[in-house]
């Protein structure tokens, strides 16, 4: 049996909510199901494992796909239906010194060689992504890679069926500081999508998704433990109410109720942080050193632990800024602020989604062994296997129901509900 600390972690969507329609034999309408993939550099190896489990069983009930940074690369491999493409890209390319070498970056200003790595995915190369297969697969589906517009600091979503897809993949992975310049597409400049939409779940909802499956490369933030009395009260209320009205998903309401105090604290901290950063920005030109110190002090360690959401945590951003010899400028400060605010907004959406949206997350319950960069091979392999294990567990618990509910046909799906029992 899969250990508790490695379990698929549902946020709002429950087994009963998914399976009710299949068991009753009727449903009001098909559901638009979206797949949302978080980035995280080499931590994307976990996502590669999840998606390879899906590919193994031909599971693809999704009408919409969204990916940011490494999540966009894994999404591309998935819609191209290329098993272990993401695994090979991360383990064979991103681990090479040519891709990134910390000391060379420090001593010679040798940036992350994203151009070389992504060039291997272009048509005509032995290791190319099969974009023709993707276009056939996406005839009635839609896949988007997220990048950040440098000038507006707004997220932009590029369709993978358009001619600009190679540039879009490069843009979504173009980490500020590590990649030398923004990527120009049309008349706009773009950088890493993680700055503005690390987990583009809100975009999935805006485009009409009813059910959103989110693959995370970091643990889901757990709600604070409540005392035994409150917990017993909520469980008793749930059981009594659902026994009378099983069609009403009280779990949705309770999830929102239980998270309101944590969300209020997020909002308060976000407003205070924005206020402080605004004041500091006004004084930047006259006192840069004071600015850096104040920002570092105001953004406490817990708030700055980005954990791979934007490749590096805040402290590492400052270290890289120092190592690069470049001063902290207002553009980078705005990106850091925008990233933090946008990520808190995504967290709030995940914890308290609109009534129409149902969300389930696949995530490790403890930090992955791999890092954003410079991961050891054993760590990458362990995280890939963990992703594959959780992907298979997800299929056992949700696969049949999602296929039966989806707006798109998935006739090739090989059910795992009976063939793949829990491991003993």
UniProtKB/TrEMBL annotation:
Signal peptide: none annotated. A motif (DGA/G) lies at residues 192-194. It comes from Salinivibrio kushneri. Pfam families: DUF6363, Patatin. GO terms for biological process: lipid catabolic process. InterPro entries: Acyl_Trfase/lysoPLipase, DUF6363, NTE, PNPLA_dom, YjjU-like. The active site is at residues 69, 192. This is PNPLA domain-containing protein. It comes from the Bacteria. A motif (GXGXXG) lies at residues 39-44. GO terms for molecular function: hydrolase activity. A motif (GXSXG) lies at residues 67-71.
């Amino acid at each position: 049996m899969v250990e508790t600390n490695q379990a698929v972690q549902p946020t709002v969507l429950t087994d009963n909510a998914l399976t009710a329609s299949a068991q009753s034999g009727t449903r009001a309408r098909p559901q638009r199901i979206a797949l949302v993939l978080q980035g995280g550099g080499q931590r994307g190896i976990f996502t590669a494992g999840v998606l390879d489990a899906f590919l193994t069983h031909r599971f693809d009930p999704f009408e919409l796909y969204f990916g940011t940074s490494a999540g966009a690369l894994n999404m591309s491999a998935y819609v191209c239906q290329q098993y272990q493409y993401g695994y090979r890209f991360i383990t064979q390319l991103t681990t090479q010194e040519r891709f990134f070498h910390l000391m060379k970056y420090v001593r010679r200003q040798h940036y992350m060689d994203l151009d070389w790595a992504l060039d291997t995915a272009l048509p005509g190369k032995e290791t190319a992504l099969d974009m023709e297969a993707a276009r056939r697969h996406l005839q009635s589906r839609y896949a988007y890679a997220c990048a950040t517009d440098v000038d507006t600091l707004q997220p932009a979503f590029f369709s993978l069926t358009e001619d600009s897809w190679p540039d879009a993949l490069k843009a979504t992975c173009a980490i500020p500081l590590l990649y030398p310049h923004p990527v120009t597409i049309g008349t706009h400049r773009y950088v890493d999508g993680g700055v503005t939409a690390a987990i583009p779940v809100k975009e999935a909802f805006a485009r009409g998704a009813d059910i959103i499956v989110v693959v995370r490369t970091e643990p889901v933030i757990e709600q604070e433990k409540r005392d035994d009395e409150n917990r017993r009260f909520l469980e008793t209320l749930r059981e009594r109410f659902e026994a009378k009205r099983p069609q009403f998903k009280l779990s949705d309401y309770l999830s929102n109720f239980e998270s309101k105090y944590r969300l209020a604290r997020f909002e308060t901290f976000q407003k205070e942080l924005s206020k402080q950063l605004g004041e500091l920005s006004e004084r930047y030109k006259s006192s840069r050193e004071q600015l850096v110190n104040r920002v570092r002090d105001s953004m406490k360690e817990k708030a700055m632990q980005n954990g791979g959401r934007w490749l590096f945590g805040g402290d590492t951003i400052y270290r890289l800024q120092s190592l690069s010899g470049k001063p902290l400028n207002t553009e980078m400060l705005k990106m850091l602020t925008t990233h933090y605010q946008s990520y808190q907004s995504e967290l709030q959406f995940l914890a308290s989604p609109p009534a129409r949206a149902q969300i389930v997350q696949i995530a490790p319950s403890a930090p992955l062994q791999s890092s954003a960069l410079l991961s050891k091979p054993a760590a990458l392999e362990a995280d890939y296997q963990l992703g594959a294990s959780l992907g298979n567990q997800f299929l056992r618990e949700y696969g049949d129901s999602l296929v039966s509910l989806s707006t798109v046909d998935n006739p090739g799906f090989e059910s795992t509900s009976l063939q793949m029992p829990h491991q003993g």
